[in-house]
Specification:
With 267 residues, the chain is α+β, with helices and mostly antiparallel strands. The chain contains 6 helices and 14 strands. The strands form 4 sheets. It has a 5-stranded antiparallel β-sheet with strand order 7-6-5-8-14. Helix 1 packs across helix 2, helix 1 crosses helix 5 and helix 2 packs across helix 3. 30% of the residues are buried.
Length: 267
Amino acid sequence: MARLISSKIDTLLALRADGRLLVGRERITLLEAVIQHGSITKAAEIAGFSYKTAWDAVNAINNLLPRPAFITRTGGPRGGGAEVTEEGRRLITVFRRLEEKLGRISAAIAEEGLENDQDLLFWGVAMRLSARNAFHCTVKAILPAPVNVEVQLQVSPECEIAAVLTNAAVQELGLVPGRQVVALVNASSVMLAPTEEPPKISARNKIAGTVVSYVNGGMDCEVAIDIGEGKTITSILSCDETSKEDFLPGKKVWAIFKTSNVIIASD
């Protein structure tokens, strides 16, 4: 006979993409606050986030969605307003609808009971990746070679990433043109060149963007770069090798990383 564990079971819904958190209750609350107040600063305060954590959250959502859920208006991240797009509003609607259904299921479990909490087969195996930069991409082309294969990835209409994999890895991941994947790039692998023209360097990936934020952490500095279409790439640099004047918000820079620094994940 089933035993009642509790009169109430609290449920927590989290949507993940390729092992990484896409959105949970806190991030949805943040987006809803942006809709209400039109300000990321005010929304962060309401959601209980720091300003930086709020920006990291919306950037992560944008990078893992085909189209951005959040944009800023004229005036820059601090001076201008913020807006949740139609994609973001659909995300909120779907999340709240799923959360409501999950709540009804948990209420039924609490009412009917279970033999023990091990019967709750909600424990799954998930891999958490430390790579800071994760981008939803489409495989554009695969250029075969005897040993390594170059895979061209479309991040946005104006942005492409190239990765080099072995033939075995391409086959194992099932990569073909048109396949949806996630590209992972560790922030410490991303070099920055604060120049107008493309730098003359052998690294295959050179992406133009503008500085969104610069955070001095003492030994290391974190620079977030807007690369267009709601996508952001983050770089971690040694503070001894950087100058804050080179990375003022709005300044043009190039994000540079090797093809070997790109990891591709597929379902």
